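Look at one record.

>
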Amino acid sequence: RNFLDGRGFMEVETPMLVSNAGGAAARPFETHYNALNEDVKLRISLELYLKRLIVGGLERVFEIGRVFRNEGVDTRHNPEFTLMELYQAYTDYEGMMELTESMFRYLAEKVCGSTKISYNGIEIDLGKPFERLTMNDAIKKYAGIDFDQVADDEAAKKLAEEHHIAYEERHKKGDIINLFFEEFCEKELIQPTFIMDHPIEISPLTKKKPSDPNKVERFELFIAGREIANGFNELNDPLDQYERFAKQLQAKNAGDDEAHEMDEDYVYALGYGLPPTAGQGLGIDRLTMLLTNEQSIKDVILFPAMKPLNESDATIIFFMSFMLFCVYSI
């Protein structure tokens, strides 16, 4: 908050109960609003309402708040978690990468006293310039495949089969690229690295690269083999955005439960004019894990989601607690 305040950002709050849960590829929790007899969802992202504020004339905004995703639980995922998103008008993803890099150095110095931190027995140096790689260059480096030379969807699927990468029939070349990146590259990105220029298929809210319309002006920050932050140049063409949402809707109807839904209200807002804008999202829980050298998200959330106890487990735990009580009483 201090860092962003120093750069002229305003902290805001946006709705948690929404009619259309967009801004990320995730399955929402659903509920019913009795007063209006309307089905609503818990938000999965902060993005679309924050960008409405940029449309409304607030040039630098951020929010730190809970978001909810109806997905599995593991060492990096919890169904409700804390997310920070910020949006700045009249900058681009190069400027947003500079902000992100500067913010991580600031946080490390404030929290850990140094830009060199230890995570899982490895020294992470946040003081050096962060490496930058395009997603295709990362795959070329770690898997030996140049997807810039792969002709089409069918050729990409053939490569996936040859490398034992599971995919779905609906997947396009861009989806296959992302699967290769997750399989071969993520675990290699230990020191801070910006992965840039993602396929358009996995980036429905991002501006296309003028030099290559199959890619978008996006970055993800990886540290210690994990995605920590995600940012991009915001798509501000309402016609293009409508077409992207329509394609996402097709993917959803084809079985992709995490695809974006059509959000006509947001497209309508874009019609008023979103200035050139870049944004960034940062998982606060994963950031806390990094700065405190914790390996599981459960260790940085006070009440993480846990599987319920069955009756036999509950009986054993009660009996053990009772025995401990008796021992300590003696």
